[in-house]
Amino acid sequence: MSWSVETLARARSLADRYPQKRSAIMPLLYMAMREDGYVTEDGMRVVAELTGLTPVQVESVASFYGMFKLIPQGEYLVSVCTSIACMLNGADDVMSSAEEQAGVPAGETAADGVVTVEHVECIGACGGAPAVQVNYELVEGVTSEAVAAMIRWLRENRPETITAAELQERFGGARSFDPAISEPQGAIGPFPAFDPYRTAGGAS
Amino acid sequence: MIEHPSDSHTLETYEATGGYAGARKAMDMTRDELVELVKSSGLIGRGGAGFSAGLKWSFLAPARPAYLIVNGDESEPGTFKDRQLLERDPHQMIEGIVITAVANEVHEAFIYIRGEYPLPARRVQRALAEAYAKGYLGKGIFGTDYELEVTVHLGGGAYICGEETALINSLEGRRGEPRIKPPYFPAAKGLYMMPTIVNNVETVSNLPYILEHGADAYRALGHDVDTGTFLFSVSGHVNRPGNYELPHGITWRDLIFDVAGGIRAGNELKTWIPGGASAPWFVPSQHLDDEITKDACGKAGSMLGSGAVIVMDDTTCVVRAAERVVRFFAHESCGQCTPCREGTTWEEMILRRIEEGAGREVDTDLLLDVADNISPGLLWPPKMTTICPLGPSSVSPITSITRYFKDEVMAHIHGGGCPFD
Asked: ipTM value of the model?
């Protein structure tokens, strides 16, 4: 196992949180991505050991879900929604602009390893269409120009943490609804910034 | 739902405005009393299937442990109501979870939130921590000896996990493939093959109001059999897209032109999807003055579903719009059933070639033939050839554009390309 003793302890307590350890596969796969940047063979072996399954059983789950990335990703995963509500508001142009600025087609990582672009299906931001996520932090009301500027900004500044509030202020427009209070926490790495093992009442 | 101020994602504000009064009340009630209360409120599940919440509860088999899963996997194109409830009012949902758990003698609940919603998930996580600290969750809630544990589970980016049996498989650590019903009705055999209630975020968020104000007050908010209020997510070519909490019974004209501010840039309304990407489309010449009720939508051959209204103006190419909706279903098909896996892919390919100018004269018939193989008779609600309704839902945009916009489809084929390009 390549995970630290501390990480493994957190992972075990997470698996214990569920009535059956197998249920912890998905949160453990997110932990595996946090360890290695994507879901590696090693990561799947660790998850298999923690849940009492075989690595191939873990892979059968990992390969089903679009957010478990089985190949290396850039530091910043730029996901452009091109589903119906975003498409009606110009998302196809936003997608082309993102591909052009990144220098790679959707689904690929730029040669510098900084930015991956992908197109995604509906991300629940239809009232603020077109919408984009960077490492799953949401920005709404994005234009072609804004997405290009955003990718340049990511490359030039390499921010350690991505927050929805900062993205929205710099590159966003109209939103689905008033967010009331901006969210201080943000993403580090190309996976959702959510710590399953800190689930209330469980391990902390 | 109860109106709370903008920072009601904190426990302090939520309680200051009456929060958790409903949960306290529920602690003193029996299962039968609670199920009867919710049944008589007429609360309909808000996940899209439109089933009575109280009735769903009453079906829960007696075996224990039983589980509660709150479905926050909101992924239907056009729908963004649960995101607002999770982000802005997580305590209202948690209070609803307490009420549901007590009503169904459940001691373990899971909130399944789609993976693309990390911010809402963090908000919920913090709200849960507050509720645990206050003794509203955990061992001995509200000073009783009742135990209730709640865990947030993040999805992995699969629309199909909104289907309740797929969600259960996903929560068990499996591929998100729907189970064959019967026998796998969750109320009988759900999570770990034990009795399980699966309720939508919006559904449980309605409960605090019902507990606090009673079934009659809740019914009075609504319209006829569609009790309470309903969250409409309006998107597309309107001046004021957003979530609107309204009673049923207003007309589509009211919703689109009054509430949502009309069509942007002085364009004309062309068509709209009344209840999420799965629903057959409506057109102004036939449906604009229809009342918005579950029954009226059903009689008109569509559904209110999750309340996602996607509005398209006259600059919209319906072939492109249909292709985009069908592409979604092709992308999200879990692959178990051949009609869905193969059919949605063919539908997408044929629509794309029509849009790109390579359509053939026979393609509209071919499209309908493929569609008929997924959904025999092209009826609404559809006849099923598949385990779940995902495949049959992909047929809706195709029957809609061939019914209302056949000329526009044929113009693509005869003109060798899209007239809107």
From this structure: 0.96
